[in-house]
Amino acid sequence: MPGTSYHLGFQGRKRIVKMLKQIMEQRRASSIAYDDILYCLLHSKDSKYNLSDEEIIDQIITILYSGYETVSTTSMMAVKYLHDHPKALEELREEHLEIRKTKKPGEAVHWDDYKSMSFTRAVIFETSRLATVVNGLLRKTTEDMVLNGFTIPKGWKIYVYTREINYDPFLYPEPLTFNPWRWLGKNLESHNYCFIFGGGSRLCPGKELGLLQVSIFLHYFVTSYRWEEVGRNEILQFPRVEAPKGLHIRISNYHA
Ligand code: HEM
Fold first, then answer.
1. How close is the Cα of 205 to the center of ligand 1, in Å?
2. Which of 2, 126, 151, 208 has the fewest CB atoms within 10 Å, measured from its CB?
3. Where in the sequence is the domain holding 85, given as residue range(s)?
4. Would residue 221 count as lying in a domain?
């Protein structure tokens, strides 16, 4: 229905599909071997997967959508929670300043540095637990299922709402408290009730890439800047119940 967000989203999707079709045409007319996903997908026709154009476009849109909003929202919410919890920020900054001590000015961080960022990983998981970006998981039943006396027939598409699990006081004591330390050394990430990145064979394929991106952002952010919140912030409820529309912060140089 015109005027609704759904309608706007649909119009947006049409524009993206048009753009991608044009790019695909240009790519097909070119002999350049691009080093990107679109190039691989276009050449999937030579492999056993043989994706149609529609499927290739769908893959690109899925990756753009899944890979952008999740990482940017998690980064923003980490900045918010760290601002509100100076002890956590201090420990996180300490972790990153230790890494910087082993580097020359401007030298990039490496894989081993990233793997040593255990508190950072805990901060990201705690942020994702409280500010859950993906509320639930889509699945299709492959057989009739009885759940609490209700039958879900075979073939139904179901949305498994997983967000509330993150606030269960039996699983996460004091669930509304931002406590990254709860993730350290307890292997909480691998528990079968942790659905932050989904589960089973459809587990988020971008999980490690997403964690890496947020970690690298935090590395440079906390070692370069201080920040304070400015303006009203009522949209960022705790825990977040609506998509946040933005975080207003004033940034200054950490070393100044
Ligand atoms: C903090 C970052 C991220 C979070 C919290 C997140 C979370 C999730 C969740 C909960 C799912 C559903 C999994 C399921 O159904 O079991 C999912 C699926 C997916 N994610 Fe992520 N994700 C993140 C980053 C990324 C990145 C960086 C990419 C790629 C660049 C990505 C690509 C995908 C794709 C393609 C799917 C669909 C997988 C499928 O249906 O088989 N995600 N993600």
1. 6
2. 2
3. 33-253
4. yes
